[in-house]
Amino acid sequence: MLLPMAQLVTRVDDAMAQAVDRLVAEGVVDSRSDAVRRGLELLVDTHDRAKIAAAIIRGYTLVPPNDEEALWADDAAARMIAEEPW
């Protein structure tokens, strides 16, 4: 079942249109619309992740880890690195 989709209309300069057309020609995206859709998805995702990161930083700033928690985190990170198949 197809969900209803809003149509967004925008203008870009010729250089951007040509760059998008190159992406289409190279098979990076299926169409101009696909390129715009992917760009918007990336923008929204980047913004959402930045908000989450800021909230995490705020939390650790308000309640910093104590010495025991910091040692546990360091130990866990060292074990994860050691397990990597470099």
Primary descriptors:
70% helix
Your description of this structure?
The chain is mostly helical. It has a domain at 36-86. 70% of the residues lie in helices and 0% in strands. It contains three helices and no strands. The protein has helices at residues 14-25, 32-62, 67-83. The longest helix is centred in the middle third of the chain and has 31 residues, at 32-62. The N and C termini lie far apart (45 Å). The mean pLDDT is 94.
Brief overview:
The protein is an all-alpha fold and 86 residues long.
Structural class: mainly alpha
Shape: elongated
Figure out the total of helices. Answer: 3
Order of helices and strands: HHH
Task: Give the proportion of residues in helices.
Answer: 55-70%
Can you give the mean pLDDT?
Answer: 94
Residue share in β-strands: under 5%
Which value, in Å, is the CA radius of gyration?
Answer: 22 Å
Largest β-sheet summary:
none
Spans where pLDDT lies below 50 across 5 or more residues: none
Total number of β-strand segments? 0
Cα-to-Cα separation, first versus last residue: 45 Å
Write the layout of secondary structure elements.
Layout: H1 14-25, H2 32-62, H3 67-83
